[in-house]
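Quick illustration, no need to memorize.
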Amino acid sequence: MPRERLRRNRRTGERVLLTAIASLTISGFLLTALLGYAVWQLEQIERFQVHDVLTAAQPEPLTASDILELSRSRTQQVANVDQSTEIVLSPSIDNPLESSERTAENYLLVGSDSVRGISADDAIMSGRTASIGNHLADTIMILRLRNDGTAAVVSVPRDLIVPIASTDSVAKINSAYNLDSSPQTRAARLIETVEQHFNIGLQHFVEVDLDGFRRLVDAVGGVSICFNRPTRDRTIEDSGDVTQGGTGFSVAQGWSHLNGDAALAFVRSRRLLTQQDSGEWVRLGVWNDLERNSRQQQFIFQALDQALGGAVGNPRTLQRLLEIVSTHLRTSNTLSVFDDGLELARRFRGLNVDTDLERYAFQLIDMESEGQLGLELLDNEHNERVKQVFQGIGWNAVVEDRVTVSVQGPNALNLAAKLRGIRFDANHENVGAYPSNRIRYGVGGEHAAALLAARLREPIEIIPDPSLVGNQLGLEIGSSPPSVMLGYRAVEAPPAIAQSENAAVPPPPRTLGICG
């Protein structure tokens, strides 16, 4: 009897083992088939050979925080060797002061308004005046993905008047996508135009057309957006002009689940109205590209957040997304559509849209160029800082060109010129010699003072000065002026003075306009 029970137990164990092996084999086959299908679909994506106009990712510039961290690290390294050793943080082949990790990268994201193949009664054509043959860039964004899992995005208004790359014309930036018959050449011209006008290097290019955007929203089951009040786009009845209709967008107050058509109408609208308690419809925000760009950013990243969550674990949704992407998405040949696509999906799944995504906007003014109305960038600190974010410099980071140094003492002119040579904003006043060389700093200026001290070869006294604020510094020169270094010397930050609202330039507000 025990032997019979043993045989039965053995047979039962064998069946369980065979069942497990069969299940693993089938799962492996299905996974292999799914990966094979994904690779096949992604290989259908049109890839533009535009690597020659894209810019290789550059190491991010050193900031005062970087120098202080390097100083602490280097001081610890030599602390037990020779306390008198001078620690010089100079860029060189052996000590390049650059991270060996992959640098952050910029993506040029384009929504094309091409409607080739779309019927005249399609919802996409609502409120549209552009020709069927046009290939204007309806939406242009620059996205920066960093190694630390955070990201930054800024929209480029399509009505921005700029010099068009490789031409003698000055026109709206979206027209750079309409000058050439070849899609690849159109992409290359737009990339060059953006890089040259903003001085921002781009590493990748991604484009999706209107129908692709609509189908992507439908594929993930729509996207939920909250509205503070009943909201709709302006209609012909509102404008009194049959040529000035809208996209047909209309929702009630509260959360609305937008399908592809409604989502497209929302992001394309340029003249949104909201209903007041009195029942009157009034314009929402400013009717220009800036308001529209803010809504596009809000929607696209909320859609992305919801889409990635819905696609995981849902093979049917994933299949639909792959089919749409293979048909409507175009990328630069700098992207591996499979490996980089998986990496991007992983990074975006871990991206908290509310806390990890910095949203920026340029400040612009209306202008007219050769009879053409458009927008122009203001020449101000705000716009310069926005550009620098996409060059790798944080909004409140302390770097040389954000530090103003007033040099006072004998030969101040010469020293100020040398400081300007290493990018400080330096001015001078030739007066009598001070008792010693000193750096004066005010509220919020301790990092700026440390950065200036790190660029001076000789140790220098750093003292507080309540008359200064932020990155304003005073540099007093004695009878033996300090010498300026090309590299950096190890330093310690002076004690922080009591904080003030003026300690740093405030970042641009993240107003959403709707459910903000």
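Residues 2-42 form the longest helix (41 residues).
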